[in-house]
Design goal:
By secondary structure, the protein is mainly α. It has helices at about 5-25, 40-70, 75-90, 100-125, 125-135, 160-165, 195-205, and strands at about 150, 155-160, 190. Strand 1 and strand 2 (about 155-160) form a beta hairpin. The termini are far apart. The model is unreliable at about 125-135 (pLDDT under 50).
Amino acid sequence: MNAQLDAELENARQCLFDTYNIALTYGDAGKPPQSFLDTQEAQKFLDLVVRMCEIKNDAIRNAEAVEVAKEARTLAEFEEKYRTALEEKDQPFNAKETADYRNFKASLDRMHEEYSANANDASTNADMMIEEQICIKDPLTKLTMQNPVKNRKCGHHYEKSSIMNHINGGGQRCPVVGCANKGYITNADLVDDPLFKIHLQNIIEDQN
C-alpha cells in the first residue's frame, strides 16, 4: 500500500481520537461530556474507523493486483491480469477484526475508564479547575505557558518543560497549591489539551 495513504489514514485516526477526547472532556454541539460515555456516541467514531479500515484494505488489494499485472506486455493483458487478481483477492473482510480497529476501540475504552475513575475528583475540584482554565501562568515558573500539558488526574495545566524537570526522578505531586490530587505525577498522567491551548493563545493575543 502507498506509504503516504497509510500515513494519512493514521493521521485521520489520531484526529478522530483527539476529537473524541475533547468531546468527552468538554462536550460537543451542546451535548454534555457525559453523553459521550454513551455507546451510540462512541459508535459514530468507530463507524468512521471501520470505513478507514475498508479503504486501507481496498488499497492493499489494488496494490497487490497491480504488482501481479505489471508483468503484462500489453494493456489488454494488464487489464485482464489486474481484474483476475482483484477477483482472487476479493475475500470477506471484517474491519472490526483488524489491529487498527481493535487498537482504536481499546483506546476509547481506556479513555472512558479514566474519565469515569476521575469523575468524582474532577467534580470536587470543579472551582479549582475553572480557575486553572483561565490561568496562563505555569505554577512552577510563574511564567506564561507556551507548550502546556494537562494532568489527567486533577485537570491542572503546566508548562511541559518545567513539569518534566519537576517530576524527573519521581516522587513529585501536583505543584498547584491546594490540589486535592495527592498521587505522584507520572509521564502517563500528562496529556495534550488542544482546547486549552486555543484558550491560552486567545488570551495571549488579547493581552498583546
